Amino acid sequence: MLARTRTYLEAPVSIAPLATFRAVFGAVMFVSVLRFVLKGWVNDLYVKPAFFFGYWGFEWLKPLGETGMYLVFGIMALAALGIGLGAFYRISAVLFFLAFTYVELLDKSNYLNHYYFVSVVAFLLVWVPANGRFSVDVLRNPALRRTEVPRWCVGAFRLQLGMVYWFAGFAKLNPDWLFEAQPLRMWLPAKSHLPVIGPFLGMKWVAFAFAWFGAIYDLFVPFFLSIRKTRPFAYAAVIGFHLMTWWLFQIGMFPFIMIMATLVFFPGEWHERMWLSFTKMLKAKENKETAHGKPHRLHPWLMGGMALFFTFQLLFPFRYLLYPGHLFWTEQGYRFSWRVMLMEKAGHASFRVRDPRSGGESEIDNQAYLTPNQERMMASQPDMILQFAHFLAEEYKQKGIPDPEVYADVHVALNGRGSRRYIDPTRDLSKETESFAHKDWILPFESTKLAAK
Amino acid sequence: VGTDAGSATSLFLNQLNYDLEVLKNARIGIPLGKTTLGTPVPANVEVRYGGYSAALAKVQLRALQDLYLGKSAAGFDGYGLFEALDAVEAKYDGQPLSTAISTQFTAAIAALDAVPDPLDQTVVNAPASANTAYTELQRLIVLTKTDMASNLGILITYNDNDGD
Question: Helix A113-126 crosses helix A151-172 at what angle (to 10 degrees)?
């Protein structure tokens, strides 16, 4: 069994899809990083804030100040270019993965599934010889040239992409999405000023059509992309779907990343033809004399590592099952699971610091410590509420209150239900600790059925 | 355009929320001692020597209510956030969200009306009415910041993002 799996995974396939994947990923990342810097977000998100919501276990990662952060983004841009061109490929991939992941780990207010996706893909790119053809590295050193790679090198990306789609679709199979068309029913009418489709976006059946089509698309597109006969239609759907979401929602680069990345599902011959016309256009000559003859062995450590990686990818999104309560409400096990655009959640959090000696209470002006975006993200996510409460306790200790207590009055509105109290206001959050355990100070979700419209 | 960050609707709503917060915190909360461990700071009331601090707060809240309802100074009731919420059929516990917010506006105005001037003496000698007004304003802000923003599809934020 293991031997047959190994033979399957080691079977030689064309390197062309991998070369394309590397080239488009590097290019899109290069543009993304430049865009991020030019929009001033390095400053807004990583220089200006006084407080950062680090990830549990990674709080020791701190921003490096203005010069340092711009340097990190500079390295990231160069490394993306290196990946795209296949120049100093291995070191570029490692640097890009480290720089990007470091930045993402600094503050969970900036968490996006697509950033997680970028980290995951960059990690996978470190392990494959995607610079084996059509690359600067091969120009520099023809001995690196190879026309084939073991199947797993291409398969890993197809599997990863397929999982992103499938999990995104699976997550849509919830009552709010399917039977209330929420949150689309709130988001689409907000776009009714758009030309042509605008007037339709306010209609209830349109929200339902979008919801059901979206779920079916996400669940099945990886399979249709894998089958030769359905592939052209599936790819047309990919383009249509992502352009639509780009048009309707503020989702930046994500649609383009997906449109480019899914090209990896096309077969080797298709990619070879693309590269051939591309090199012809550039009037570049491929040196065909050398072809890497190394046996395509999959090192046992690498095979084990990949098995571990994909097992993790498969199981981690299901960790929410280990927690009591409603996932969307508690968000315990919500991140890193490809749950995309499932919630319209807005919160209002107001904190009280109490001096136990006098009983006096002060209310906190969140904006004195947080950026508007940080405040918005914090107000509906329990782990961030706890982090901020701990920060406040520390702050008031500095101000001379030996053992300050911190209470939170938080109200959250989820998917069109009326706002309700979110956190137990009698619990001193300074005494609660972060862990993977259930947070029993989150008030239970009162499942009121959405009012019929 | 529309409801993106930086669009007219979102700027309007964000500013309305901001004004409500300033009214609650600066005009009432700070004098009441909400930021000083419960010790009132009467010196920090608005127009302390004019003696009409509470009156100013009442006028502001009525003006914000008019903005919400879409009422002009002359009393003409046009298209406001109230109508916008009805247009998207926003609900709050089964009733229209538009009415829920109006009702809370009325409750906050009534509570504020019960706060006598001069405010610097009220917050020291009889803070109960000011505390009630503070709580009612807090309730109002919860509705405008969470329910209203959600239902109008508006991001309560001040910069664009790279969302997913």
Answer: 160
